[in-house]
């Protein structure tokens, strides 16, 4: 990475997001390249970069799904919860004998 154009591609490819200017980011990478020898530690650092980027992508995808489908998820959850409440209330009423279902079925509403 030697040019300002190289640094501009980092955010578009999802590699590095920074509050630094392009010039400051280039300076940082040039400094790091001078102080790192190619070897085990060098590859370990880049492996950590890739792992962070991949994990971040997964969390962004999960967040995007919930953000885009929030209304549907809430609606589904509430409908399941309401159905459960109606079921348990009906079951409780019929088991406690508060209302006799057979008595009310014979009445007709005029």
Mind explaining what this structure looks like?
The chain has a domain at 1-35. It is 76% helix and 0% strand. With 110 residues, it is mostly helical. The N and C termini lie far apart (86 Å). It has five helices and no strands. It has helices spanning 4-12, 22-35, 40-68, 70-96, 101-105.
What's the topology here?
Elements lengths: L3 H9 L9 H14 L4 H29 L1 H27 L4 H5 L5
Kindly state the number of beta strands: 0
Order of helices and strands: HHHHH
- Give average pLDDT, whole number: 78
Largest sheet: none
Helix content: over 70%
Given as residue ranges, the uncertain stretches (5+ residues, pLDDT < 50) are none
CA(first)-CA(last) distance: 86 Å
Q: Quickly count the helices.
A: 5
Highlighted features:
110 residues, mainly alpha, 5 helices, DUF247_pln, FAR1 domain-containing protein
